[in-house]
């Protein structure tokens, strides 16, 4: 993995295992996963070791980061740290804190680069000159486990609190609007979203295109319900 900064000039950020070493390394990672599950290793430690281990082995040309973050969700759910049916948005927290996330990756990759001898040919194809499998076999995951613990803590103390607050505000706003007008829930949902995207009010264009049947009095009352429900401005950002 590198960055092209000029013609035939690359800044190398990470070097993955040699292709011939990948199969035994992946087999070892899978066996480690089984042993940690059977040995009741703490879920966050388990998730950190396997998910970061996967991304450091980098078995695919693309998508390794997404699979790495999926593995965190999967293992935390598998180990029942996360209640069944609950979406635990730890990967969202990781991406929001990109500097800390990058630091957790570089805690391994930065030191690894000094241990690998490589050559880039004129086509900028890399050839690794020394044996490197040992550097990927027994990785010290302390920094990664600490980082994931912090991401999990932020998810619980901040992200989930915000999400639950948003949902509670939504339910209250929905009920308030239902008391104002008899309208399908999907239309109320659209109204709330459009107001939140526009600082608590429905734009004239959106009114014409979606809510031309509302009277002025109904519109004012519904906008007020949104602002009361969300404490005007606190959740005015776009929600998906």
UniProtKB/TrEMBL annotation:
Positions bound to ATP: 62-69
Annotated Fido domain residues: 1-121
Catalytic residue list: 58
Coiled coil: none
GO molecular function: ATP binding
Keywords attached to this entry: ATP-binding, Nucleotide-binding
Full protein name: Fido domain-containing protein
Organism (species): Candidatus Magnetoglobus multicellularis str. Araruama
């Amino acid at each position: 993995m590198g960055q092209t900064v000029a013609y035939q000039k690359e800044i190398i950020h990470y070097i993955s295992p040699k292709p011939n070493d990948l199969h035994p390394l992946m087999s070892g990672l899978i066996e480690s996963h089984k042993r940690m599950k059977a040995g009741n290793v703490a879920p966050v430690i388990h998730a950190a070791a396997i998910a970061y281990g996967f991304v450091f082995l980098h078995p695919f040309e693309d998508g390794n980061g997404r699979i790495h973050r999926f593995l965190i969700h999967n293992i935390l759910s598998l180990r029942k740290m996360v209640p069944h049916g609950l979406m635990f948005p730890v990967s969202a927290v990781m991406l929001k804190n990109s500097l800390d996330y990058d630091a957790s990756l570089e805690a391994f990759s930065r030191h690894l680069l000094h241990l690998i001898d490589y050559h880039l040919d004129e086509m900028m194809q890399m050839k690794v000159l020394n044996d490197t499998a040992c550097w990927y076999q027994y990785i010290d995951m302390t920094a990664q486990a600490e980082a994931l613990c912090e991401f999990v803590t932020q998810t619980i103390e901040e992200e989930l609190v915000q999400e639950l607050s948003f949902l509670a505000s939504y339910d209250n706003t929905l009920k308030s609007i239902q008391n104002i007008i008899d309208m399908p829930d999907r239309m109320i949902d659209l109204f709330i979203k459009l107001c939140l995207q526009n600082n608590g009010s429905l734009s004239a264009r959106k009114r014409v295109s979606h809510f031309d049947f509302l009277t002025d009095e109904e519109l004012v009352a519904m906008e007020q319900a949104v602002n009361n429900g969300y404490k005007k401005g606190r959740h005015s950002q776009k929600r998906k």
